[in-house]
Amino acid sequence: MTSLHLMNLVHLVHPTRLRTFCALCLVSIVLVSPIHAQRGQASPAAQRPPQTTTPQQYPREQVEAGRVRFAAQCGFCHGRDAAGGEGGTDLTRSALVAEDVRGSRIIPLVRSGRTDKGMPAFTLPDAELAAIVAFIHDQKRQAESVAGGRRVVDPSDLQSGNADAGRRFFDGACARCHSPGGDLAGIASRLQGLALLQRMLNPAAGRGAGSGRAVPKVTVKTASGEAVSGTLTYRDEFTIAITDASGWHRSWPTRLVTFTVDDALQAHVEQLGKYTDADMHNVLAYLQTLK
Amino acid sequence: MTMLRSVPRPLAIALLIALPVSPRVASQGLDPAALLKPASDSWPTYHGDYTGQRHSRLTQITPVNVHQMTLAWAFQTGQTQQIKATPILVNGVIYVTTPDNLWAIDARSGRQIWRYTYPANDGFHIGHRGVAVYKDFVYLTTPDAHLIALDARDGKVKWNIVIADAKRGYWSTNAPLVIRNHLIVGVSGDFDNLPGILRSFDAETGKPQWTFHSTPPPGTPGSISGGATGGQMWMTGTYDPELNLLYVGTGNPTPVLNGAMRPGDNRWTGSIVALNPDTGALAWGFQVSPHDTHDWDAAEVPVLVDRDFGGQPRKLLLQASRNGYYFVLDRTNGKNLLTAPFATVNWAKEIDKEGRPIPNPDKEPARDGRLVAPDEAGGTNYRSPSFDPATGLLVVSAHDAYGLYFFKPEHGEYGWAGASPAVYGRGVLRAIDYQTGRTRWNHDLHGGAGAAGVLTTASGLTFTGDSAGSALALRTSDGTTLWHSGVGRVGNSPITYELDGRQYVVVGGGSALYAFALAAP
């Protein structure tokens, strides 16, 4: 079904599944190379999700009502337990949920949707929304008290590369547009783990405005010869739309103008077909040195 | 039955006597034999007919006049849920669904005739594919895996039965398939380790007829699944009446990303299976994704085509599968005739002598992640393709994509058991030569994976929607845009029909349904 950005996934290990889970750990020692096996022991504290800023209590009945509504409306994408499902993010590790106070951030988002990321807008009664908020916070509270998880990718999992090999690859493939002392200075301090890997592979991926994602620059030449530059807001077969230097939205039918889109993303897309998995891990290892 | 019990006994008896001779029932119900050759004023089953070609003989709207196509009516559901259902049209009435909701709409005017709302429930409300119609019955599957039979005239519930246990994690978005008196219904269930089931019910009474297991209940003696569960058959199949075989694609195995605990091919997950619709017995199976660890079900439409292949007339089955490969099978026996990639792929090490892509172990989910094409959403998905006989093209809503796949033992062995974030994807409408699998043309959908299915017509038109919010009409021979309308993201497969001498094309845009036709006074 829909596939969007699953980031920082985590899941609680169900107590009744611990036995089979542990049995599988033993199998893993045989199946997984030693270098990988060692990395399973990183401190859980190093990968703690954003902590709830304002602790909140909800009545048990409201949480349970929210569990039912959440499963029906949100569960497919975000998981029945809010820890990530098919396509949606892990809400127990969400910065927005951490900052939310009784729906202050969650409810407006649910009502408006995030259509650019595939999340529809929902029209739900206030009581249902409140119950869903209660359930999400309850799940987050439980997630914060448990280490490890079923769907999480830890930064410690992403240490298999060789930074020297990564630097050599970088010099050949990436240095034309990027520099370790310029745009990438301190990148490893700003982004870690899976978030850094995803940004490396696709700079357009990520968590929306303010996170430094690449926005293509556009220059439109109108029929009268006027040239207008700005950042791309929208483009399809029929319309080109930009935000101009003054912050105004402007659009034209594509058949009436010519335009160029300086899309740095394209080089990254082409690179996806060239990386070996070793290359990818090596470049990541190199980027992790740029603190 | 419930309905009759609620009215006074003498009146109930009168109704029982009156119903069988009512001319309205006799003339208005859908005889299941009509599905063998659907009339042009109908779209009586999910794919339009049993072949899954989604190709219409109608020719009033042509490449020359399609730019004059204009809105005939719009139907607002008033919901926020996107319409993902194929509208079903019988006797001038369109039946369209979203989860828990079924509307009966006048196909001439777009006016609502009745609406049925299923009670609130906690099943996944992710989408709904549509209804099935048999005589004066309309059938709706529900998020909590029930099957409801309603009176097509007024939406009154005739019966309500359980398809599968929602408490265990089953749900249903399925548009059932009617074959004679068999009502064939599938379910979903990827988040739990559940046996894969397809069920047939008596279309009149709802009495269970048979259950086919793509994976058996754990512990079944002689199981060939290798310990896998899953393989849910959540999409509507196709049917060859001459061979009396029902074709269905099966889902991916569970646990989804943990392949280590379910060694081997995991039959019959990720497969196309041919079943006897009278008994549910397996005639043959072909596994398009042996031992899948990437969430690539083979639920995509098995399109049935009678054409030459290799210079010989054949009964073919075509599938553009979620794993990025296009397959041509001989549908009499399931033998593979062609396997070729139609979308970006990097996960197979070889095609074996049976025509199956064999996974490269290096691309299985790993602790430090593997960069895999396609991503979890696949090279295509539920959105229906269309086969155009005139050009020999299978037009597919394709997706060139990369994703990351993670699995470590801490992810466990239940449900998803791993992580599979998307990296990049681009939606492309792709016309594939059915004999070679080669791309004849591409049409950029301007965004990620499309949500719209495809309809072709005998006049040489292709109807679909792009990823940016427009319904499109293209020239089938080369993919050129001839018409568009910014109705919002098309989330279903378009249908077409002719009423009163006027051809309509109906698409879902957002949560509304739009009917287009050539301008009329």
Q: Which structural class should the secondary elements of chain B be placed in?
A: mainly beta
Helix count, DSSP H or I runs of 4 or more residues of chain B: 3
Question: Mean pLDDT of chain B, rounded to whole units?
Answer: 94
List the quaternary state of the chains. Answer: heterodimer
- Could you state the order of secondary-structure elements of chain A as H and E? HHHHHHHHHEEEEEHH
Q: How would you characterize the largest beta sheet of chain A?
A: 5 strands, antiparallel
Protein structure class of chain A: alpha+beta
Provide the helix percentage of chain B.
under 10%
Strand adjacency order, main sheet of chain A: 4-3-2-1-5
| Percent helix range of chain A | 25-40%
Report on the architecture of this protein.
The complex is a heterodimer of chains A (291) and B (521). Chain A has 291 residues and is an alpha+beta fold. Helix content of chain A is 39%, strand content 10%. Chain A has 11 helices and 5 strands, in the order H-H-H-H-H-H-H-H-H-E-E-E-E-E-H-H. A 5-stranded antiparallel sheet of chain A has the order 4-3-2-1-5, with no helix packed on it. By secondary structure, chain B is mainly β. Chains A and B meet through helix 1, helix 3, helix 9, helix 10 and helix 11 of A and strand 29 and strand 30 of B.
Q: What's the gist of this structure?
A:
The complex is a heterodimer of chains A (291) and B (521). With 291 residues, chain A is of the alpha+beta class.
Features:
heterodimer, A: 291 residues, alpha+beta, 5-stranded antiparallel sheet, 11 helices, B: 521 residues, mainly beta, 5-stranded mixed sheet, globular
